[in-house]
């Protein structure tokens, strides 16, 4: 599922949702560690650097559009979210006139087993995103992160790449913190934000009409403190996670 990239001009939540659907529908480039020999990983990684793969393909090279570049870890298991039930319950919630809050959306997610979430890393195209993606992809290969994906290069020079690193349960704060630690241990030190997949399934992106922030944690790595660590803010409560 597409996560909103940063644009020069702000888009509406509906625009972000349309981009999301388009990326999900287009072919993905996937390395599945459950099926593909580990020896093939590094050549695959080199051949599919996000700064070199075009989102909308290369007509001269005969290459079509690419939605995502993704790595699935050796222990990545199937998920059975009830997305149809979630969306039906969402429509009922909207029709009821009840206030839409993080808690009401969390309740829907729990009821329909839509619990996955991801830390998001937004980066400009070029060497840095390739390096960050290499770090995350290796952590997935080693089983330290369940799965991850990165957006390919956009024709719009202002657009950023987004790397998504996943965990199984956004409602388990300890698990979310462990994923942050795995990302930091992999070598990524830039700012991160965390988004539950339930927001993506419901089309809730930035600039939505409910004025909800679709990311529920923010992580900034402190290079000054000893030992170095992340400072993570729960954006729902506005409190630091300790």
UniProtKB/TrEMBL annotation:
It holds the Pfam family Bles03. It comes from the Eukaryota. SUPFAM superfamilies: eIF4e-like. Gene3D superfamilies: RNA Cap, Translation Initiation Factor Eif4e. InterPro entries: Bles03, TIF_eIF4e-like. Coiled coil: none annotated. Belongs to the UPF0696 family. This is Uncharacterized protein. It comes from Astyanax mexicanus. The lineage of its organism: Eukaryota, Metazoa, Chordata, Craniata, Vertebrata.
């Amino acid at each position: 599922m597409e996560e909103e990239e940063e644009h020069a001009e702000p888009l509406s939540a509906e625009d972000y949702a349309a981009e999301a659907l388009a990326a999900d529908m287009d072919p993905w480039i996937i390395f599945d560690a459950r099926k593909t020999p580990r020896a093939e990983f590094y050549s695959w990684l080199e051949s599919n650097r996000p700064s070199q793969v075009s989102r909308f393909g290369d007509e001269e090279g005969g290459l079509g559009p690419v939605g995502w570049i993704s790595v699935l870890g050796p222990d990545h298991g199937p998920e059975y979210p009830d997305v149809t039930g979630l969306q039906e319950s969402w429509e009922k919630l909207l029709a009821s006139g009840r206030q839409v809050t993080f808690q009401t959306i969390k309740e829907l997610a729990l009821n329909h087993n839509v619990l996955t979430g991801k830390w998001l890393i937004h980066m400009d195209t070029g060497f840095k995103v390739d390096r960050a993606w290499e770090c995350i992809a290796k952590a997935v290969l080693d089983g330290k992160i369940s799965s991850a994906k990165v957006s390919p290069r956009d024709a719009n020079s202002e657009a950023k790449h987004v790397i998504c690193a996943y965990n199984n349960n956004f409602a388990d704060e300890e698990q979310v913190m462990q994923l942050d630690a795995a990302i930091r241990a992999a070598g990524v030190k830039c700012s991160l934000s965390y988004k539950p997949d339930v927001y993506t399934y419901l089309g809730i992106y930035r600039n939505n009409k409910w004025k909800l922030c679709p990311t529920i944690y923010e992580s900034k790595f402190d290079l000054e403190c000893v030992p170095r660590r992340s400072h993570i803010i729960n954006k729902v409560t506005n409190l630091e996670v300790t």
